[in-house]
Amino acid sequence: MNDRPPFEAVHNCICSHADMAILAFYKGYFDTVYIILHPFYRKDENDNISQLVTWKEFMALAEFENINQLDIALRTSIFGLNKRCENKEYADRLVRASELNDIWIPSEGNFQDTLEKEMLKSLQELGHHYVFVADEWGYERKLVFIQDMIDGKDNTILTWGAQRNWYTNHNEILYTTHWDSHFTMLCSDRNTVESIVVKHGFEGFYCDANTEIYWSTMQTDNHDN
Question: Where are the alpha helices (DSSP H) in 84-222?
Answer without folding.
Answer: 88-100, 113-125, 146-150, 190-200
